[in-house]
Description:
Largest sheet: 3 strands, antiparallel
Number of domains: 1
Shape: globular
Distance between the termini: 16 Å
Amino acid sequence: MKESFDEAVQELKRVDHLFWVSLKYTRTVDVIKHVIDRLINCIGFGIEALLKYAKEKKLVANIPANQGLRCDLLRKTFPDNAELIDYINFYMRLRKLSKAEYTKREEFRRHVTMIATIDKGEIVEVSIDVLKEYYENTRNFISFVKKIINEEKEEH
């Protein structure tokens, strides 16, 4: 559990660098895509930490390898936690974005934008400002995971 959480924190540091340094100087859609992929990895490690926590609490028997199944298991394990459900939905949306076909607009400029088509033709424009929201949301998720995991330590 702690290893997964530490991995999530390390991944967040990598996102930090990509967002505040790489994107600042290159302003390309490739960097935006890399940031999205790192955010996905970060949340994935957070989900793994939550599932390991649930396994220690004997709430789940085993942890599936597939990320989609992990999300479904978390939804079933913590059905009353609306905040967690929102984070899972956000994670699934990022995964769709990462796999989607995309085009580029205004590369090498302040308003560089990745334009992706997900689901049934929904067009999503990911600019630096939208990416910052994704980044903040991921940071909030990691804080959320830390809070849940640390509640367990306080009980002992």
